[in-house]
């Protein structure tokens, strides 16, 4: 079973809470969403604050590596924090041991160091700390960025705006750039979109451009408006000029009435604090947030996830996210005070604004991010996908087995069952241990066994036809372990949902396939086939061979040149059928009827076999007379050969065949054939358009790829 091994590293000190710390935590959570990804998170600094690392360590597929404990040959200049050169050497040493498929790094300096190693080809850098102005970036910085771009297979960028900027700066097509949007935890219980406590919240760093002092000043002014407002602050990183004022600001926050300063806390605790607050603050200077901004604040999305209205500066990116008429765009401290006061005193405006930010942030969840990233990340996995086909009868999927067996990205095994519920369990367990994807053809005992034994990380697909509805097996499925159920027609889709309670979100409709090229042979001369009827498969009795004989007999009475060609196994060839008295009696009567009929020589039994394409060359009309079918391939194969289908209206036939070939009774079928008024010139186009093997196999391959 496949596992994608990833190393995650950032120039990030997890003892300090800021946007970079949140990014690394988010990335780990996103990667942990895929059961088949194993992640080593390499730390930059020794841990003094365990809030973040304990949260990451609790994730099932995340392993945290302390470089000071994990490496034996490295020496470090600083006993507490690695520099970038040391980090690159540690990554090389870890790769020799773990053989990572992919390495994800954050930071310009570490990307520059990794570019000096052979590992750069499987490294995805994420760089935000570059000059975001094409006119101000110097040649040296530009050249370094371009070298990293040229050497790496992919580079993450946060937004389309950042991608466009880097394309312009570097003068590249940008096909290596992959958008890695900010990531927030999945939505849980929907909030009530009400203001409960008049509480504001700020989470993040303390810096001049992040308006720390202005926020405190605005809060003081709000308290003078008799709002009983409070302010929650989360964070412990003082940056730039405010680093020199750290003690003064810290003392101010500790002693300000109505303000609670939590310091550095875990991501989960930060989100809990946001959920208990009513207004989020993401207001920054115009040096950071402006109409040409290329980054989107994760803090904004965290507020939105909780249904917390957000104060923020008007920018093009923010307008695209929240709408031009969003009511909490602020440009000044006065705006903050006025608009906060307005919304806290207006329940209708509060509810409307809270709902808007809540809905706007949905696409940034961990699950959504994982689904976007998986196709890119799994490109770094060199081994083929191990695909197992399991079942007793592969006649409808054999082309698929052959297709994937010859596919460069897949390796195929077959677990051949001997019946609906009979198999070699030792062989099946061996196949199970090997497989990445299990494809059960027919939802019978095979689907029951594999849904009960599937391992975490494996994917299980079950393809259902029709007969399963009348068996005990669907009720025995462990449905939670089945990833997708394929129905072979729209009617079958609805039936399995209705009868077997298969959840709609697990189902997909993909038609049976017809190899239109295989059946596209020249017909015999028109005068030789215009009176030739064909039926392919007459067992068991629900195929209604008696109805086919009735139609033929009525036509023969009009014109003695009509013949009925039967290509099928015969009743005596199936022991189980002969053991059923009603089935045996049904066929005994039919064959006695044929034997005694004046038209007996015009009913010709051709040997059952795989030469249907050649057999169809002499057939003008293909009959489908069954009481019920899930699809009935024979008439569609007939269309691919140029034969005309004549279909008794079994339930669901209209979801597969054109209505002009579907009939309510035998007489209508007889009239249609005898009148010969239909135009067959384009009959081959229909199966090519909807059921061609290449088309259906493409859909199956897409499903296989997406399910992983």
UniProtKB/TrEMBL annotation:
The keyword Nuclease does not apply. Residues 187-358, 520-653 form the Glycosyl transferase family domain. CDD domains: GT4_PimA-like (cd03801). One of its GO terms (molecular function) is glycosyltransferase activity. The keyword Transferase applies. Residues 455-518 form the Glycosyltransferase subfamily 4-like N-terminal domain. Keywords: Transferase. This is Glycosyltransferase involved in cell wall biosynthesis.
């Amino acid at each position: 079973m496949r596992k994608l091994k990833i190393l995650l590293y950032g120039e990030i000190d997890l003892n300090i809470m800021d946007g970079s710390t949140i990014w690394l935590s988010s990335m780990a959570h996103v990667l942990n969403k895929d059961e088949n990804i194993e992640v080593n998170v390499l730390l930059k600094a020794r841990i003094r604050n365990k809030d973040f690392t304990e949260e990451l360590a609790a994730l099932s597929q995340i392993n945290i590596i302390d470089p000071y404990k994990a490496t034996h040959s490295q020496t470090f200049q600083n006993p507490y924090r690695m520099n970038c050169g040391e980090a690159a050497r540690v990554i090389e040493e870890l790769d020799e041991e773990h053989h990572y498929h992919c390495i994800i790094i954050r930071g310009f300096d570490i990307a520059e160091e990794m570019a000096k190693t052979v590992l750069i080809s499987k490294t995805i850098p994420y760089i935000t700390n570059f000059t975001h102005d094409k006119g101000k970036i110097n040649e040296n910085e530009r050249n370094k960025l371009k070298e990293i771009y040229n050497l790496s297979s992919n580079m993450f960028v946060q937004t389309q705006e950042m991608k466009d900027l880097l394309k312009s700066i570097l003068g590249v097509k940008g096909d290596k750039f992959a958008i890695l949007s900010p990531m927030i935890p999945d939505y849980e219980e929907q909030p009530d979109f009400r203001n409960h406590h008049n509480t504001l919240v700020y989470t993040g760093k303390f810096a001049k451009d992040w308006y720390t002092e202005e926020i405190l000043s605005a809060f003081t002014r709000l308290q003078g408006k008799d709002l009983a407002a409070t302010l929650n602050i989360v964070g412990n990183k003082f940056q730039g000029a405010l680093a020199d004022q750290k003690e003064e600001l810290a003392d101010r926050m500790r002693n300000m009435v109505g303000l609670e300063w939590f310091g550095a806390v875990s991501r989960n605790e930060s989100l809990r604090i946001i959920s208990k607050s009513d207004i989020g603050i993401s207001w920054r200077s115009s040096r950071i947030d402006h109409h040409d901004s290329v980054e989107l604040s994760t803090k904004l999305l965290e507020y939105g996830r909780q249904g917390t209205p957000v104060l923020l500066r008007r920018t093009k990116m923010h307008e695209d996210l929240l709408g031009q008429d969003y009511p909490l765009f602020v440009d000044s401290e006065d705006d903050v005070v006025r608009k906060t006061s307005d919304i806290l005193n207006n329940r209708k405006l509060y509810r409307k604004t809270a709902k808007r930010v809540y809905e706007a942030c949905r696409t940034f969840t961990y699950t959504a991010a994982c689904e976007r990233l998986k196709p890119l990340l799994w490109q770094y996995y060199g081994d083929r996908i191990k695909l197992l086909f399991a079942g007793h009868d592969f006649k409808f999927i054999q082309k698929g087995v052959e297709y994937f067996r010859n596919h460069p990205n897949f390796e195929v095994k077959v677990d051949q069952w001997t019946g609906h519920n009979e198999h070699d369990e030792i062989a099946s367990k061996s196949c199970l241990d090997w497989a990445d994807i299990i494809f059960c053809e027919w939802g019978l005992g095979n689907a029951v066994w594999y849904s009960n034994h599937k391992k975490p990380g494996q994917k299980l697909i079950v393809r259902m036809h029709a007969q399963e509805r009348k068996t005990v097996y669907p009720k025995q499925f462990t449905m939670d372990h089945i990833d997708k159920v394929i129905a072979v027609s729209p009617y079958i889709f609805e039936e399995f949902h209705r009868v077997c309670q298969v959840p709609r979100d697990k189902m997909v409709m993909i038609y049976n396939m017809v190899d239109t090229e295989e059946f596209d042979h020249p017909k015999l001369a028109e005068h030789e086939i215009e009176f030739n009827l064909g039926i392919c498969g007459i067992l068991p009795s629900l195929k209604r061979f008696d109805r086919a004989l009735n139609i033929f007999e009525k036509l023969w009475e009009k014109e003695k040149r009509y013949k009925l060609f039967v290509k099928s196994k015969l009743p005596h060839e199936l022991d189980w059928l002969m053991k059923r008295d009603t089935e045996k009696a049904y066929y005994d009567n039919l064959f006695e009827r044929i034997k005694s009929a004046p038209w007996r020589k015009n009913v010709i039994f051709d040997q059952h076999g795989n030469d249907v394409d050649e057999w169809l060359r002499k057939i003008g009309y293909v009959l489908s007379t069954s009481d019920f079918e899930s699809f009935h391939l024979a008439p569609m194969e007939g269309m691919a050969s140029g034969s005309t289908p004549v279909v008794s209206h079994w339930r669901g036939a209209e979801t597969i065949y054109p209505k002009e070939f579907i009939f309510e009774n035998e007489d209508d079928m007889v009239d249609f054939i005898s009148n010969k008024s239909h135009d067959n010139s384009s009959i081959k186009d229909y199966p090519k358009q909807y059921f061609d093997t290449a088309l259906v196999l493409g859909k199956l391959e897409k499903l296989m790829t997406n399910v992983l």
